[in-house]
Specification:
Keywords: ATP-binding, Kinase, Nucleotide-binding, Transferase
GO molecular function: kinase activity
Radius of gyration: 22 Å
Shape: globular
Mean pLDDT: 80
Distance between the termini: 55 Å
Protein name: ABC1 kinase family protein
Number of helices: 18
Number of strands: 14
Family: Belongs to the protein kinase superfamily. ADCK protein kinase family.
Domain ABC1 atypical kinase-like: 93-309
Helix content: 55-70%
Strand content: 5-15%
Amino acid sequence: MAEIPRRAARRTAKLASLPLGVAGRVAAGWGKRLTGQDAEQISADFSARTAEQLFGVLGQLKGGAMKFGQALSVFEAAVPEEMAEPYREALTKLQSAAPPMPAADVRRVLDEQLGTTWRTRFAEFDETPAAAASIGQVHRARWHDGREVAVKVQYPGADEALRADLRQLLRFTRLFQSLAPGTEIKPLLTELQDRMVEELDYRAEADNQRAFAAAFDGDPRVLVPKVVASAPKVLVTEWVTGTPFSRLIVDGTREQRDAAGALLAEFHFSSPARSGMLHGDPHPGNFMLLPDGRLTVIDFGAVARLPDGLPAPMGRMLRLAAEDRPDELLDLLRTERFVRADQEVTADEVRAYLGPFVEPARTPVFHFTRSWLQRQAERVGDLSGPDFRTGRSLNLPPEYLMIHRVTSGATGILCQLDAELPAREIITRWQPGFGD
C-alpha cells in the first residue's frame, strides 16, 4: 500500500464518492420497492453496502477521515439494532486496522526522526507493523537496554492528509449524522479538527503520556506505559500486552466486561484530578485489560487540559438532574450558559430531556446496554418529538465540548461492553460538585 494519498483532488474525490454512493443506493432502493421487493431487506442491504463504502473509504484515507471514523465508532451502540450489524463489523475493523505503509517508508521516517544510526538504539526492530492507527502505525521492537517497546511511526504526508480530510468532512456532516442519532456532528467535527492538529507532533503526545504515567505510577488498577524516546513523528513507549476492549466487546466474559467498564469509568472521572488532563480519544482500541486485571491505556495525542479538574458546575447539574430538582437545574443551566439567551425552555422540559441521561447516577449499580443508549438517541433525535425541540434550545459552551464528547464516547464503550458497574459511587468520588 502506498503512503497516504496526499493530493487534495484525489482525497476530495474519494470523500465525495460517499454521498454519491449513498444517493445511488437510495434510488436503487426506491426502484426495488416499486417492483414489490421487501422493504426490510432493502433497508438491510442499504445499511450493509453504505457501511462497507463509508468505512472502506475512511480506512483507506487514514488521516483525519479515519480518525473521525474512529471517533464515531463508539456511537455504534446507539445505532438501532436492525441497522447495527453491518456498521458494527465495519466500525470494529476501523478501530484497529488500516493498510500498512511500506517498510522503505518506515525506514525513511526513522532516518529523518531518530538519525541514520537509529538501529543502534534498538536491539531488535520488527519492520512488520503490529498495529495501525489513524495517522501512524506501531512496530514492536526491543530497546538497547532490553525493554520491549512500541514504536509509533507517523505516516508520510499525514499532516497534509489530516487537514485536507477535515476540511472535506465538514461538508458531509449529514451523511455521518445517520450513524449517531441525536448527536450534533458538526461541532464534534470542528472540535476534533482543533484537537487532531495537535496530535501531529508526537513530542506533545509524549509530554501528555509522561504526565499520565507519573499520575498513575504504582496504581494497582491502571497502567500507563512509560515514554522511552520521542521525536516529532516517532514515539517510543514501553510495550504492553493485554486484551483489547474491542475483543472483550465481542467475546469477553460477564466478569471481564464488568471489570473493564468499572476501570474505564474510574479512569475517565479520576484523570483530571490526578493528572490535570482528560484522555481525549475514547475508542476500544485504546484500552486493554491486562492479565493481572489492570487497565492499560494508550494514545495520548488528544487531551483536554483541565488543571483544576473536572468543572464543579457539571457535577452540580448532574446531581440536580439525578435528584429531580428541575427548577434549580434550569437556574444553574442558565447561569452556566447551557441555555441559549434567546430561547425559552421550562423546568419540566429540561427534566424530560436530561432525566433519562442521568439514570446511571441514580442507582448504586447501573447496567449500560445498547438498548438504553438507543432509546436515548432515538428520543433526542426524533425530529417531531418534544425532546428534539428542547435540545435545540440548549447550548454547549466551548469549554465543555471536549468533556462532553469524551464522556459520550466513554459511555458508548460501556454500552458496547454491556457492563454493569457502580457508576454513582465513582461519580461521587471523583466528580467535583456531585457529592457536595
